Amino acid sequence: MRIPAHSVCTAIRDDIVSGVYERGGRLAEELLARRYGVSRVPVREALRTLEAEGFVVTRRHAGACVAEPTEQEAADLLELRTLLEPLAAARAAQRRTDAHLKVLRGLVRLGQQRSRKGQGEDLRSLDGWFHETLAQASGSPGLITLLTQLRHKIAWMYVVEPPAAPVESWAEHAAIVDAVARGDADRARVLTASHAERATSAHRLRHSPRGGREAPRGGRVRDMQHDVNTAGFPS
To answer: What does the DSSP assignment read for 64-132?
Structure first.
């Protein structure tokens, strides 16, 4: 596989998240460079970035290795998300553009349609796109970056069970979008906080901490990431 040098970090991160590299496993620069078809320089830079993000640790005599998060570290991520997503929704109510609103409304329509038909895999992707677009609508680059990193790490550490009542879940999404459209920051914050709290119960750890048995793997983070794109969403 050959990829552009600037994409090495994304490729390694995606492979860590999807389980290509086991937790605690060594990440040899030479082997990574060969796998992705680049020199060792971008690999070294990527590993430094991934260490700052918490995916990689440097160990004496071993070098770069995949991190082994504890249960507490995993739980902290879900708590952070319940704090940051409501903040993003409140800011979106104040800063969203018409393009963001168009995408959010289109996603809600699709989600409601597919939830009634029981199309679970489609709903998983739509849900990820919805929350990413809501974060982008916040107009806060720092907050968007934090939430993106959280999504990557949560996808790495957790399997997310489909919502027991998908129709109700998408009704919550619709209510959040209505609050954002009206510019009601307080209501957008409250609704998103409640939604995030309920969603937390659907998360199941992929593995026991520190070398325990890994649970079945879920989807790749790459499949859930999208830029704001108004194509295909009618006004």
So the answer is: EEE----HHHHHHHHHHHHHHHHHHHHHHHHH--HHHHHHHHHHHHHHHHHHHHT-HHHHHHHHHHHHH
CA distance 7 to 79: 30
Q: Give the Cβ contact number of residue 127 at 10 Å.
A: 21
57 phi and psi angles, rounded to 5 deg: -125, 155
**Alpha-carbon distance values, 163 to 29, 134, 166 (Å):** 40, 20, 5
CA atoms within 13 A on the CB side of 37: 5
From residue 230, alpha-carbon distances to 77, 90, 91, 144, 235 in Å are: 30, 22, 21, 19, 9
Cα separation, 47 vs 56, in Å, equals: 7
Is the pLDDT confidence value at 176 over 50?
yes
Flag the least confident range among 117-121, 204-208, 213-217: 213-217
pTM for the structure as a whole: 0.79
